Amino acid sequence: MPAILLQRRHYNYKTLASILKDGPNRRCKIDLRDLEGALVVLGFSIVNAKGSRLTFTPPPSIGSVALRLHLHNHELGYYHQDALKHAMEDLYGWGPGTFACA
Predict the structure, then answer these.
(1) What is the mean pLDDT of residues 36-46?
(2) Separation of alpha carbons 10 and 42, rounded Å
(3) Where are the beta strands (DSSP E) in 1-102?
(4) Is the CB of residue 18 less than 8 Å from the CB of residue 27?
(5) Which positions ≥6 away from 58 have C-beta within 8 Å?
(6) Strands 45-50 and 53-57
(7) Sign of torsion, CA 50 85 90 34?
(8) Contacts of 57 by beta carbon, 8 Å cutoff, 6+ apart
(9) Helices marked H in 1-102 — which ranges?
(10) What is the pLDDT of residue 26?
(11) CA distances (Å), 88 to each of 2, 16, 67, 75, 82, in order?
């Protein structure tokens, strides 16, 4: 399957590349707003359920199961990224090579 093209600001070392570990030394802490921007570009809708709980609902073309996050600040550390990586692999089949810069 060909890679999904995203603008660099949505697929740089600070967003999906870091979560999916696409390339050596790509891990960094991510600001939640950067992740939200990347997922909105892909067609996800975002609902802030209560305080620190977020739900990212994908468009039908991607899947039917939403990603859920429970954060206490606006930074996604490595632990959250690892959990997101596994969820994205399981739910949507995403991994290294799924996305590329346009």
Answers:
(1) 91
(2) 10
(3) 4-6, 30-31, 45-50, 53-57, 67-70, 75-76, 99-101
(4) yes
(5) 42, 43, 44, 64, 65, 66, 67, 91, 92
(6) antiparallel
(7) positive
(8) 44, 45, 46, 47, 66
(9) 16-19, 32-41, 78-92
(10) 66
(11) 17, 10, 8, 18, 10
pLDDT at 66 (0 to 100)? 94
pLDDT at 2: 74
Place of tokens 């596994």: 86
Number of Cβ within 10 Å of residue 2's Cβ equals: 7
Give CA–CA dist 86/80, Å, rounded: 10
CA distance linking residue 38 with residue 27, whole number of Å: 16
Strand pairing category for 45-50 and 67-70: unpaired
Helix (H), strand (E) at residue 94: none
- Supply the pTM of this predicted model: 0.85
